[in-house]
What we know:
- The chain is built from eleven helices and eight strands.
- By secondary structure, the protein is an alpha/beta fold.
- Strands 3-4-2-5-1-6-7-8 form an eight-stranded mixed β-sheet, with helices on both faces.
- Magnesium ion (MG) binds near residues 25, 48 and 50.
Amino acid sequence: MAGKNTGSWAKIYAIMNNKGGPGKTSTATNLAVTLARSGNKVLLVDSDQQANSTEVLANGKKYYSMFGPTICDLYNNPRTDIRDVIVPAVAGEAPIPNLDLIPSDPTFEKIIEQTLTRSHREKIMARHLEKVRSEYGYIIFDCAPGLNIATGNAIYIADHVLVPVDGGSFSLSGLEIMLDYMDEISETDYSRFSVFRNNFNGANKKINAVIEKALTEHPRIAPRLLETKIRTDQAIVQSQVACVPLFYFQKSALSLNDYSKLARELEALTEQEVV
Length: 275
Ligand SMILES: Nc1ncnc2c1ncn2[C@@H]1O[C@H](COP(=O)(O)OP(=O)(O)O)[C@@H](O)[C@H]1O
Ligand SMILES: [Mg+2]
């Protein structure tokens, strides 16, 4: 089992990094599938206007507004019923057991701008999700790069923020800016987060040493560094291009073991966290 939430109140993970490309979408989609395959009912919220999770879990439908309601409707109109926005996730045409999706759409960026004058704007998703939270074991947010209001909404409601760090785009100052935003939204010194290495290739000894040193010497990040690393695996890229979650694209992919390990480590860690 890759981790199971046996409570009747969904645990909420937000996958976040203020940069594009470190692995938010690949982690969100593959972690969601891993947890669903372990028997948990899972909802993935695509909170990124790039709609890459929607592409992967809705068979390539990036411009989802053409097909039905999206996260844009939840932000646009408080009276939208969240149940009308939730759809079953699919691998190709086949429904993925236990996995649902709130799709995004490229127009989401504009919609977020329009919420800037609304009061309690960081609580929009919390209000909507309240209605369905007891029906899920896990809710996973795939966040946009950048610290916009939709990301603020994810921080506000998340039990745990998960930050992928990639060899190519690693920036300690970027991580610090994100931690500041997490403190601001939560009005505390936010500690319910963890950082993990994605796209990890053991052969890149020099880069790995630099990143490892920066992370382990940072007083706030060091205690929050996960043991799990997601290895570099071309099957991850190929599955994303094919708009199919990795498990359904290549069941033998070795990195699937890493996502299972990540699910287990997160489960153990969040058990100890007091919300
Ligand atoms: N572990 C990995 N190994 C190889 N490629 C990866 C890995 N993780 C992510 N990628 C690729 O890197 C690119 C960016 O990843 P993605 O998850 O879309 O990042 P983000 O959502 O943070 O922008 C995608 O092409 C993805 O397939
Ligand atoms: Mg993404």
